Amino acid sequence: MTPRVLDPGALPLPGAAHGEIDAAAVRLKRRSMAVLRRSLHIRTVDTGSCGACESEIRLLSSPYYDFHRLGLFFTPTPRHADCLLVTGPGCRAMDHALLSAYEAMPAPKVVVAVGACPLGGVFGADRYTRGEITDVVPVDVVVPGCPPSPLALIHGLLLALDRIEERITLQEGEQ
Ligand code: SF4
């Protein structure tokens, strides 16, 4: 499936009012319950980021965004994850860890590339770095930015839930 690329121009400007963040977050909770009938569980893999994308992801758990009130969780085990958030330019030393995490996730699973790095937007390929992660895992959703804001991440997760819903519908059609 072709990756869906979040359009940052469609988002409120950085420094969005808390009401806009709340509205997007509540929508995410509703979509999670409608598609999965439970919370969305997320595993992150850093393939050599500068740390800024990771910082933005961590902010989702801060009291300001208060991700947990929505029943959305980061999980340390890929076996419990619906969604894989990948940062960094695909350092070759991370190939095995990235692929292992992806393979351990149960279907229907979805991969979200966070920031410009995972699709080659910052570093090129060389003997240490792939420059992009698509040779290792398929990417379903792209959240552009360097780094993307937490609000952009929430909208990227909404796209991820759309992709999971499509997969569930396909599976049901095949049964
Ligand atoms: S996209 Fe930008 S902020 Fe994110 S890891 Fe790459 S260089 Fe850092």
- Name of the top-level CATH class: Alpha Beta
Strand content: 5-15%
**What can be said about the biggest beta sheet?**
6 strands, parallel
Ligand inventory: iron/sulfur cluster
Q: Which radius of gyration do the C-alpha atoms yield?
A: 15 Å
Order of helices and strands: EHEHEEHEEH
Task: Write the CATH architecture name.
Answer: 3-Layer(aba) Sandwich
Question: Could you tell me the mean pLDDT?
Answer: 89
* Class from helix and strand fractions: alpha/beta
Q: How many individual helices?
A: 4
CATH fold title: Rossmann fold
Can you tell me the residue ranges where pLDDT is under 50 for at least 5 consecutive residues? none
Tell me the overall shape.
globular
Number of strands: 6
Explained architecture:
The chain is built from four helices and six strands. Helix 1 (18-36) runs parallel beside helix 4. A six-stranded parallel sheet has the order 1-6-5-4-2-3, sandwiched between helices. The chain has a single domain (20-30, 40-160), classed as Rossmann fold. The radius of gyration is 15 Å and the shape is globular. With 175 residues, it is an alpha/beta fold. The structure holds iron/sulfur cluster. Iron/sulfur cluster binds next to helix 2.
Tags for this entry?
175 residues; alpha/beta; Rossmann fold; six-stranded parallel beta sheet; globular; binds iron/sulfur cluster
